[in-house]
User: What shape does this take?
Amino acid sequence: MNHSDTDDDAAKEVHDFIRDRVREDLASGATKSVVTRFPPEPNGYLHIGHAKSICLNFGVAEEFGGVCNLRFDDTNPAKEEQEFLDAIEADVRWMGFKWDDAPRHASDYFDTLYAWAEHLITEGHAYVDDLNAEEMREYRGTLTEPGKNSPHRDRTPEENLDLFRRMKAGEFVDGARVLRAKIDMASGNINMRDPVIYRIIKKPHPRTGDKWCIYPNYDFAHGQSDAIEGVTHSLCTLEFEDHRPLYEWLIAHLPTPSQPRQYEFARLNMTYTVLSKRRLTQLVEEGHVNGWDDPRMPTLSGLRRRGMPPEAIRDFVSRLGVTKSDSVVEPAVLDHCVREHLNKHAERRMAVLNPLKVVIENYPEGQSEELEAVNNPEDEGAGMRMVPFGREIYIEQDDFMEDPPKKFFRLGPGREVRLRWAYFITCTDVIKDDAGNIVELRCTYDPETKGGNAPDGRKVKGTLHWVSAADAVDAEVHQYDHLFTEPNPGKSDNFVDCLNPDSLTTLTGCKLEPSLGAWPVGQTVQFERLGYFCPDLGSTAEQPVFNRTMTLRDTWAKIQAKG
Ligand code: ATP
Ligand code: MG
Assistant: This one.
């Protein structure tokens, strides 16, 4: 692992098999100027796996003074929606990357792609096939047996051209005919057994409207779009390794303006979640989560709403590096990067999630004061703030025990603790309701301990966070856990069976320090002793709602320390 620092990762020279190849190509002159692209299909939201591809494509372009295009691979109008296009752009920007011009679209090139399909036909390298999907599967053969030629394989270029034009004119129904590249039905690589390159889909397209009813598929659109854009290094995930011969065959048989090369790297996989768009779509459509940006989702919009900073996501991706071997990473590694970043950058505030009222009996009624608190001990520049204090405060219910065991250093009858930034208090009485529940504590404070130290040098073992009752802002807080109870839920089609029923816990009546009332959405803050939190989308000063990004406990750092 490459332990780069979050804040200056751009300064270090990164080495991996792709960057080393780019360096070589630039040195030899094979590449004049690097062009990459990030090519999402707009049929869902981007997830943490896409972050790897984004960081690689935009990162390589940035590091080598080239450009990276954002290109929508919008060749299937049946699955694509404007909402996805917009969300993808917003997510890439949020990750901190920019593209030169407007985003590109495979659909921008439909005219050229169509002309190139006719070119293949004319040259005798493509034919129109009438086999239906099932027949085509039968003819394709298997990994161990060669395929068979379609009875339509030897149509003349004239006949093919006529049929293809009639496909374009809308004369045939969906699936009735396809255009196939004429390569080799006996090839050891099934992708080379006359792959389909154009199909009939009678659906209007978000960008080209009713102009087309035939659409190129991924294999025919992708490499050709790369060539049109002058992409030098086309970076994709390992499952496309077997498509590379087809990628190269098409480039070799078409009059493309450039000859891009494809390189494959391993996908990012993570435990306790799913990263397949099909599965994520199912979670959204069946209502198992509250939309694509649900903070439990591994989507970039979910992580953002959860309060994870993009710097930490970039750091995470760079630590994983780029290799050719598949691996599965624990979410604890991402969490570790997030904590490391937030520890340095998030301001501290006090909030009580499960409040227990404390009345300080020797604090004069009607009096209040403001106490100085440090905003971030890791960042002097974050300054100080004033926190109101008065006769009634809230502490956390589990910071008090009526009959505490030896190792419990918080509050108990007759015990003295420090209130963060305030005073020492001693518990003098416990008030219960008729059912025997503790509803209030009575305490005294020592006015000499203002700021948290006793002039006589006496020590206390515990320091508690608290919020002034008169000034507290009421809030709702959402706490999250893994979305699944199984480490590898995606391996089964019944993956929704292992959804974690406790992945979301909602707390109401939480008490916040007043400065948290109008906390900006998008800014994550540490609630002292509790964790990192950020306002949910739609949180208002009147009705604040906070999402817990994560607790302060770093399980990954512990695993690392144990070695
Ligand atoms: P899915 O397989 O879930 O449908 P996809 O790969 O089809 O996802 P695309 O929108 O086509 O999603 O992906 C855009 C780019 O992001 C592609 O280059 C793809 O290789 C890359 N990518 C997708 N998932 C991952 C991942 N888990 N790790 C790294 N790169 C990924
Ligand atoms: Mg894809």
